[in-house]
Design brief:
Radius of gyration: 30 Å
Number of domains: 2
Strand order of the largest sheet: 1-2
Largest sheet: 2 strands, antiparallel
Number of strands: 2
Shape: elongated
Oligomer: single chain
């Protein structure tokens, strides 16, 4: 065999070795992608099932109707000197709010409020897409229900810094 034929044979052998390596790599990437897809699908299903279960068992009767109490200052005899408060708040039942106010709040905070059960997957997807595209947090995807749940968890948690500081705040 001459040198030219050996060179061609070596190149052909190298190409033959590269193709199976590329196929193997693509198979591994495909299998890993499929595995990740299944994991994310399962996690999404679990999150949805959990959200629906929480919605079904939510007890809104635990929501307090009393506004935060003002700080009361007493003199040495126990008489009230003054009350300190950041604002004057009083409880107002839902049916006393004007419909236009309720509609305005819902349209600004959660326009699809009446179309979902507390978790708006379309809104979360939109917010995720917009935030990734802008490389910063531009939109939030939480619903009114999620915002209420977050506040309830923070305020009712016995280990919450907010609950620990609440008696100190006016």
């Amino acid at each position: 065999m001459n040198q030219n034929e050996e060179g061609k044979q070596t190149q052909a052998t190298q190409k033959a070795k590269k193709k199976p390596m590329l196929r193997t790599f693509l198979k591994v990437v495909g299998i890993c992608s499929l595995f990740l897809f299944i994991v994310f699908l399962a996690a999404g299903g679990w999150a949805y099932k959990t959200a629906v279960a929480m919605y079904d068992h939510a007890d809104i009767s635990k929501l307090g109707k009393e506004p935060p109490s003002p700080t009361v200052i007493y003199d040495v005899n126990g008489n009230v000197v003054t009350e300190i408060s950041n604002s004057r708040m009083e409880y107002l039942p839902y049916d006393k709010f004007p419909k236009s106010l309720v509609d305005a709040i819902v349209s600004v905070e959660d326009s699809r409020f009446y179309e979902h059960k507390g978790v708006d997957l379309q809104g979360l997807g939109r917010a995720l897409y917009t935030n990734l595209r802008n490389h910063t947090v531009v939109q939030g995807g939480s619903t009114i229900t999620q915002q209420l749940a977050k506040l309830m968890l923070i305020l009712l948690s016995s280990h919450s810094p907010a609950k620990s500081m609440r008696p100190l705040l006016p």
